[in-house]
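Researcher: I'd like a structural prediction for the single chain below. Treat it as a standalone chain; there are no partners to consider.
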Amino acid sequence: MSPARDTRTRKVSAAPKATKKAATSKQAAKSGFPADWPATGHRGDLLKAMLRIRRFEERCVELYSAAKIRGFVHLYIGEEAVAVGVNEALSPEDAVVATYREHGHALARGIPAEAVMAEMYGRTTGCSGGRGGSMHLFDASRRFYGGSAIVAGGLPLAAGLALADRMRGERRVTCCFFGDGAFAEGEFHETANLAALWNLPLLLACENNLYAMGTALAREHAQTDLAMRAASYGMPAWTVDGMDVEAVEQAARRAVEGIRAGTGPHFLELRTYRFRAHSMYDPDRYRAKAEVAQWKDRDPINRLMDRMRENGELDDKELAQIEHQITDEIDRAVEAAEQAPEEPVENLLHHVTSSSAETVS
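Model: Treating it as a single chain, here is the predicted structure.
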């Protein structure tokens, strides 16, 4: 039997007015930063989380160039405010489904840098046992249900997780990250329709970075206002400045509060930009250098640092200490990954075939 349809009108065409919410001890506890780090308040935690993602990925570029990391690598540099801001609004009981550009989501969710880096190296201590690599990070203990190499592939999975929670009477939220390219896929429209029809506790977080691989948004969509189109399914939907981590957090909190209150799925169009190419293999010849430079002027990390400096919340000494501790954390992650074991050849069929098939000569 299909869940009963909620027939209330839930369309929202503009962003609700955000309200400032002070950091709580619970938020501080989930930040994942050691107690000896500078106590810079909630904004400081947001800054640390974004810097951790940025420096982690910059190190990945170095390691990839040195052929220590292989395969496809899709960098999140420039989009850090989205992963950090949205995850701040979620609780540990909520679920997260990500895309193949997922290092930022995983780190923001609280997966240790050592576990992510080991997965990048393909080592057994990685969060997916070394079998997933960059595009398939996974940690069920943190309800992080990983990335998918298939564009829009995570959307039906997210709908299923949300449906399961609704049928069990749980007050949990499932958040699904996906790009503007996924909006053109049938999976998005099927998921949005069923989520609204069945009143599912689902947050659809669209990371609109203006390009689906190398295809500009305007070349793919006749109507580029994605939030307006999502609202046509009868769900609250609005656009957010995805280069402002505080704006993202405030919007995500409002959406999550609405979902927990039983008003059904919400859609956020998070307008952001990736500073690097689509992947490490991409020559990135489809964007003007002036466009990239213009977006870099809105770097979410620099914007938050400037705001904190203006308010007397950050000085050079504190920033240097934060940078040093993040560098030390990543150094330890790389060292641990390089020392971690590779999977023995005799284990290669584990999780692939049944035990009886493995013994067939």
